[in-house]
Amino acid sequence: MPRPVKLTAQAVALAAVAGLLALLVWRVTHQEAQAKLGKRAPAFTAKRLDGPGKLSLASFRGHPVVLNFWASWCGPCKREAPTLERTWQQYKSQGLVVLGVDYTDASSDARSFAARHGLTFPIVRDGNGVIGTRYGLTGVPETFVIDRSGRLVDHLLAPVEDGQNKTDFAKALKEALSS
Hints:
The chain is of the alpha/beta class. It has five helices and seven strands.
């Protein structure tokens, strides 16, 4: 390879590495509050999927909240949906709110998913993933249980009806409901 071409290629590679490093530093220094157990859940306001207007997490202060991130294309989300609807029906009289967050999905697909699974709890859209970023989301489904004061009680990385998550979810619900 001729020397000028080699130097140009090295300069381009160095610029790319420097750019990626700068992006990483910016991301770390400008990251919004991440969801941490025992700390206040990150606030958000989002457009409703299930009707007109917007909903904010703050509007549910004083109520325990099951905040579930899902998407219509997610297989495990399909398995989990009936459990979340049953939880909503069973505990809403005790003040529990199940709040679905449709994550980076097409609105029409999400509405079809909600109708197909008979979801009656409130659902908001996170079309660009900003809310998911605030919560440090690694994928879907992910569920956060929040107590009446807005403190994060638990974070479940897989469907709430699977294995140990089923036990952890029941324990987190009990803690959030008794707060």
